[in-house]
Design a protein that fits this description.
By secondary structure, the chain is an alpha/beta fold. It contains 9 helices and 25 strands. It has a 7-stranded mixed beta sheet with strand order 5-4-1-6-11-8-12, with helices on both faces. Strands 14, 16, 17, 19, 21, 23 and 24 form a 7-stranded parallel beta sheet that branches. A 5-stranded parallel beta sheet has the order 15-18-20-22-25, with no helix packed on it. Strand 9 and strand 10 form a beta hairpin. The longest helix is centred in the N-terminal third of the chain and has 12 residues.
Length: about 325
Amino acid sequence: MEAVVLAGGYATRLWPITRHRPKMFLPLGETTVIDRIYAELESIDRIGEVYVSTNERFGDVFATHLAESEYEKPQLSIEQTESEDEKLGVVGGLGQLIERENIDDDLLVIAGDNIFDFELRSFLESFDANAAPTIAAYDVESTDRATAYGVVDLDGDRVAGFQEKPEDPPGTLVSIGCYAFPREVLSLISTYLDAGNDPDEPGWFIEWLQSRKPTYAYSFDGSWFDIGTLESYLDAVAWSLDGESRVADGASVVESTIGPNVHVMDNATVVDSVVERAVIFPEVTLEAVTVYGSIVDEGATVGGISLEDAMVGAYTRVPDRSSR
């Protein structure tokens, strides 16, 4: 079996933080979002090659990250486009990758901005038992949240209906961007694309596929985070820290209170401040500030104010007195 990690780029709603790094590289405790996936794939013997699929814009960033990592399986596979403005879409890119890498095996596909706490081995056991396309599904318990995802209707474990981003969801069980396809199904991706169907969201392909081939869902409880907003990323950080805080040995904290769910990274300086539910990147200086529910990016300087639900970009000064 082979695997594909879909590694996109920046997150629009996290732009001040992800403009310098793809969101998959955001820290999560001792690791990063995407490294959690790499580590689990590395430990599963049945998975051979792991293709990290991205476009040329982010190719160098992912190549450097992989070169510096300890993982042996992941290898970069760059989308081939005719112009910088051309976008293949997720399904289009996956179809091209299968052809480019000559993949002729069962295939596990995972969105690289996914954080989940089920074991991929259990998911693959479900796939084996089904002997059919299988998707991971999670109950978000909110119809408002469900509108942002592919909504799954089940008959037992079989997918009886699937709607991508419906305005009026029939339920709250959603697809989370983790799919397993038998090798004989891979050719249907090109069939789908050749028919002029939507090449972007994978959910459109699942909606099309489940009406043609028996498709099953692996429903799980526990935790799932889709990293795309400040709130979802900080929720994931809080989950990984489990109510504790993490302060790097090289950070300096003076006369300050570091509350729960805070990650302060190396060479950050925190003086006379209160910080809670926040991520403070390296080389940041905080002085006489209150920070809650916020991210302060690398090299920023913040003083004498309160931050709540805020994102401070790298190497900025808040307040900015340079024009005074």
